[in-house]
Amino acid sequence: IRAILPLIALSSYWGPLQSAFLAQKRMKGGDPFAQKIRQSLLSSRELCVLYTPNAKDSVWVSTEWGAAWALGMRITPILSGIAIDAISDDRLKQLQTIDMDELDEFVAAVQKRREKTTAL
Known about the structure:
Distance between the termini: 32 Å
Strand content: 5-15%
């Protein structure tokens, strides 16, 4: 998770709340996490799915990216410790993935999208 923290630095791109949502950083004991995730998705423009061996079987991960897909968001799967062949959902397989070693280039691309958005 520390590897994706540069994305958090681009937080003003991510929507009206001017923040990126990372459950580990934002959630406190007793928080209604389903509601917080839903609210964060509704205020976001883009979703990065950190796809790991544990995430591939997670109902929550599938729910989150499925909701982002239904909302028409840009979704980028970031592969960590897993090959694209291990992705079982055809909708997710159709998306261009990046590997963790490509994260710097991805952050630069997000920065460019942010700059275009803020210039409008």
